[in-house]
Structures are given as C-alpha cells and as structure tokens.
Amino acid sequence: MEPIFTNEQIQVEELPHVEEVLWVPLQKKYLPISLLSTWIFGFVLCGIFLAFNFFRKNIFDEYWIVWAVVGGILFLFVLISILSILGFRHKAYAIREHDILFKTGLIFRRTTALPFNRVQHSEINQGPIERNFDLAQLEIFTAGGSQSDLTIPGLLNEEAQRIKAFIMEKTRTNHEE
Amino acid sequence: MKNNYESLYQPKRQSPVAIFMFIYTFLRRFIRLVFPLIIILFMGNRDKGSILDASIGGVAVVISAYTLIMSILSYFRYYYFLDEDGLNIHSGVLSRKKLNIPFERIQNINFEQKIIHQFFNVVSLEIDTAGSSKSEIKIEALPKSEAEAIRDFILEKKKNIIAESGEDAVELQEEIKEPDQLLLSLNPFDLMKVGVSQNHIRTAFIIMGIGFSFMSQIEDALDLDVVDIATENVEKVGSGFFPAFILVFIFFLFISFFVTLIRTVLKHFNLKFFKSKEGYKLTSGLITRQEVALRKEKVQIIKWSDNPIRRLFKIFTLEIKQAAAGVGRRRGQSVEVPGCYKNQVDEVVQSCFPEILNDSFKEHELHYAYVIRRFIYQGLLPAAIMAVIYAISYKMNFLILAIVIPFLSFALLTVYYRKYRWMVGEEFLKIKKGIFSISYSLLPYYKIQAVEIIQTIYQRRKGLANLQIFTAGGSVTIPYIELEKSETLRNYILFKVESSKRTWM
User: Fold this and answer.
1) Which chain A residues contact residue B485 at CB under 8 A?
2) What is the count of residue pairs from A and B with beta carbons less than 8 Å apart?
C-alpha cells in the first residue's frame, strides 16, 4: 500500500495500533439477562395488545388477525434474540492508556475509539434486573449532540465503577495539564 | 472602564416590551396545551347561540385576562443582574426561581431582534451554557446598549478566569480591543445572486409535497377532487403522465423560485460578517434581525460549497460548524454565510486554522466497489420493483422508469465516485464531494472526539470499510475505503488527538 502521510518525524507504522489490542469480552451472564429483559418487554407488548382486544372487541372482529399480530410480535422478538445471541461474542471493549475502544455488531461491525481527553463525563446505569445480577452499563458522553456518545453494557458493577474512576482520573489530569 | 459596568450589578427589570414576549409565550404554551380541545370545539356541529358558545366565550375572556395578568406579573417579578461569579436571574410569579449562571459555564452570547424588538430598539439576549441539557437562557427584551455591556462584561470576566487559571495573561490582555474587521457584506445585488442560486429543485419538491397535502385537505373540506381536476386540465395540454408531471413540476419550480428569493431576502438581508480577534460575528435578517458570535476555538468543521449557478457567479456558501453547547442540543450549531468569494473563504479558513498554510494534502479516492454496491440498491432494486409493477399493470410509464432509473443512477454514482476525494494532511482532513454541488469540508485532527470504523458483511469480504469521524460540531463519513487505510488514518487521528494539549472547544 502506498503511504498515506508524508511526515518525517512520525512513522505511521510505529504508531500504536488499535488492531493489536487485547479485547475484553462482556460478562457472560449479560446475554441471558438482556434476553430476559427483551422478552419481558415482548410479553408486555403482547399483553397490552391482547388486553385492548379483550376490552374493545370491535377493533378486530376476526380472532385470527389478533393471533397473527401476536405471532408477528413474538416472531420479531425471536429474530431479535437470535441476532443478539449471535452478535454477543462480537461485543468487546478495551482500555488503553489514552482511549477506550468498543466493538459491536453482527451485520454492521463497528469499532469505536474515544480518546479520554475528549470525554465530558460518564455515567453508570443499572436497570432493575441488572441490579439483581450485579451488572451495570457505562455511558460515556462527549460534547455536542449524542452522536459520538458511547455505551458499554454488560459490565460487572464493580468493573464499571473502576473504569469510570479511571476515565475521571484521566480527564482530570488532562484538564490540569 | 469598570464604572460603566457598575449599573450592571443592580437588579434590573427588562424593557417593558418584554410583556409582549411573555404574553406570546404564555399564549403559545396554553394553545399547545389545549389545541385538540379547540379543534374539537370548532369542528364539531353545534347550534349557534347555545350554552356551549357562551361558555367558550367566557373561557376565552378568562384565559385572556389570566394571560395578561400573568405576563405583567412575570415582567414585574423578573430581575437580572451580574455579580462577581456570574449572571443572576430571579423570576417566577407563584414560585420564585433564582438562577445563577457562573461565567465559566457561559459558552455563547447571541442577540436576536424580532420585528417588535426592532420597533422599540431592544434585543433579546440568548446565553448558551455548557454541561446541562437545559442550556439556553433568554432575557426577552433589553436595550441594545445594555445587552452589549453585559456581553462585554461577561467576555472580559471569562478572559480573567482563563488568565487566572495560568494561561498567557499578557497576550490575552493585548488582544482585548481591536476593531472588528468586516469580511463580507451582502448588498441587494449580492442577495439576488444568492437567492437565484439556491437549490430550487429541492424546494420545488418540498413545496410540491406541501402543495399536494394542502390540496388533499381542501379536497376533504370541499368534497372535491382537486388533484384530479388539475391533472385533467394539465393533461389536456400535455398528454400522459410524464408531460403532466413535468408541467406541474415547472409550475412548482416557478413558485419555488420566488419563495426562495423571498426567504433569502428575509433571512440574509443586510448580512454582515465580521472577523474579530476571538472569532467571527454575523448579523443578518429583515424581519428578525439576529447577531451570532462564533469563537475560533469552538469551530470544528469549515465547509464551503457551490453549485452550477453559484459557479457562474463564482460564489460559495460557507458553513462554520461549531461545538454545540449542552448535551443533546443541535440547534444553533452551524452558521451559514452565503455569497462568499473564494478569497473570503480562504480568509476565514486561514484565520481560523492558521496551520493550514503549512499543510500539504495527499489525495485519495473511494474504492470502486462503492459504485457497484450503491448501484444495486439505488439502481437495480428500484428498477426491478418498477418492472414488477409494469408486469402487473402494463402501464408504459413504469417500463420507462425501469429502463431509465438504472442508467440515471449509474451515471450519478459514477460522477460522485469520480469527484469524491478525501485528502489527508499532517494536521487536517479535507473531503471534497458532490455531484452537481461540490462541497469541501475541512477539519483539524486534534478537534476530533471519536473515530468509528464500520464494515458490512460485503465490505468485510472485500477488505473495505466506512470511516466515520465525530467532532463536537457534527460528523463526516468516508465510505468504501480500504480497511488498511482506514485503520492507518484512525491510528494517526488518535495519536494526534491524544498527544494534543490544545483546547478544542
């Protein structure tokens, strides 16, 4: 490949390579828990739909339409589940000295790199189910819109706390310099 | 100097004009709240002079009285003043609210003059703050001189805070007073050029969309088939679907031409673009006059673009994208300066990013797979759909579309591919793209805040990737480049960002 840059002082080949990083997979128990919350949502959706039909029978006269819709919703959730099962092993993160990396996606594989000196603040979120299993997700915010914000799910609560503290430390020293 | 600011420490009310603004705000909030109710009342069938009518009248009187009283009370209970730490606003009729905005959190101060403001020679003052989602504070009406005094005071305070935190204080003080340099002002003739060279085709489509939905509303109301009547008449002139469509389109193009001309005049009337030591200032507008200030260090991306007509006039539209204040806020992010000549574009670019003069760019193309893949989705797929419709309906129009679409799509994609260049410099990334309208985006590496490499299944097989680059003022994407190149550029960007200690917003 032809060299992209003409820069005498910095050899591009000697720059740290993201590709060589050791990826840390998400917690294994995150998969069943995320599936659980997906399906709770799915069943609630079906439940609401069925309840509507029960109380107001004149929406759909034919019962088969009602069940077809429910079947459709359930099929959609089966599809979502399959995708998240297959996609799970592609989700991983890595923390380097100056940035945090996250990769995700089954069909669209994306790798995001976020330098610490561009982080505005970070947050730890725990849903009710996640809390029971000691899981948490870390949200890292950048400036200007939410486009480049990064969310890393499926971390142990303690792990998330430690990363957050590390990022805070990093951003603080950056501001002081 | 300081004596002039003394009066700013005293709690003060706004200009009485603010009462109108309060009335407007109250009414708007209220109408939004009860909007469905109003529709039901006016649409429903009812007898004249019924109790309902009388009660509606009563309610209307009560609402008007309430709005008026609340607006006046709001005005009398609204105070603003400055102190050593920041700007204070005390407000609220029933529950008192005390707001303190520290100087260091203030990002931007802009003025706006609606027509009513202009009439009384007052401005509204908008303050952007960082870090919170509710990031906009607005003082509805105050004398222009007062607003300017507040802005100068805040800017000076901010400067002192920066100086105290250990940066070059001497240099900062030197640059305080230097008159703004007028870079560009649009006279009526320039304004005409800008108006004429707008994208009328796009506006025509938008107006057509609005036009059709409006017509269908009239149709529903009058129980008529306006579109049918219209097309029938048009079809008498031309024959068949295509000529009729083209005639309608030309009609809308004509309307669009005048609408955009009027819009351009309203928006950019008497536009003046200044360069100051800290950044840029833009004032414009006929009915609503606005003044926007940009700080150099907040500028993230500079973009300039032309189109065939603008090329004739040799003018560009300049867009300066700055870091948005607050979280999840998108409005007010970029400033558009139409009607710039190339030397004015260069002037802005060089004053904002002085390092550009020493930078040399290396040009790169996209991978040809871009054309092939896009052709499948934008050319072959629609053509196949049209062919299927033709097979069912036997209407010639669809057959023509099925044949024309692939050729058109292939031609456009090829032009796009041929013109696309991404240019890698030592400090800057530049992207040139477009089919009819060519745009250039320029951004310095050190302002980038995230980099993403995205690969579809197809791209993985071919060793290609999309590179998406995020800044605090928006993102740019380079599609279909070699994975290796994208990774090299990513690593280089990360190195540039992480080794940079400059403020980037």
Assistant:
1) 1, 4
2) 121
| Dihedral in degrees, nearest 10, Cα atoms B147, B503, B334, B489 | 180
Range of the domain at B378: 369-417
Cβ distance A177 to B501 less than 8 Å, yes or no, reads yes
Which chain B residue shows the shortest CA-CA distance from A118? B449
Of B426, B455, B475, the CB nearest to A5: B426
**Calpha distance B451→B449 (Å, rounded):** 7
For tokens 């997906």, name the residue: A38
Question: What is the dihedral angle through the alpha carbons of B260, B261, B262, B265, rounded to the nearest 10 degrees?
Answer: 120
Quick one: chain B helix, strand, coil %, rounded to 5? Answer: 55, 25, 20
Tens digit of pLDDT at every position of chain A (177 positions): 455 554 455 677 778 888 888 999 999 999 999 999 899 999 999 888 888 777 766 666 677 888 888 899 999 999 999 999 999 999 999 999 899 999 998 889 999 999 998 888 888 988 888 888 999 999 998 886 667 789 999 999 999 999 999 988 887 766 554
CATH number assigned to the domain with residue range A21-26+90-176, chosen from the 4 options 2.30.29.30, 3.40.718.10, 2.40.50.140, 2.60.40.730: 2.30.29.30
In a domain, B333, yes or no: no
In a domain, B20, yes or no: yes
Are B38 and B31 a contacting pair, CB within 8 Å? Answer: yes
| Chain B touched by A162 (CB under 8 Å) | no
ipTM, two decimals, is: 0.85
User: Letter for the amino acid at B149?
Assistant: A
Decide the pairing of beta strands B428-433 and B439-444. antiparallel
Query: Among B324, B454, B484, whose Cβ lies nearest the Cβ of A1?
Result: B484
Chain A's closest residue to B323, CA to CA, is A144
The count of domains in chain B is 2
B293: helix, strand or coil: strand
Q: Give CA–CA dist B360/B287, Å, rounded.
A: 44
Cβ-Cβ contacts under 8 Å, B489 against chain A: 4
For the CA atoms of chain A, what is the radius of gyration? 22
Asked if B494 and A144 come within 8 Å (Cβ–Cβ), the reply is no
The Cα of A123 is separated from the nearest Cα of chain B by a number of Å equal to 13
- Flag if A112 and B362 touch (Cβ within 8 Å): no
- Last-in-domain residue among B382, B398, B417: B417
Confirm if B481 and B367 have CB atoms less than 8 A apart.
Answer: yes
| Closest residue, chain A, to B322 (C-alpha) | A144
Last residue of a domain, one of B384, B417, B450: B417
In a domain, B169, yes or no: yes
**Six-digit token string for B329:** 């806020």
Residue in A closest to B130 by C-alpha: A143
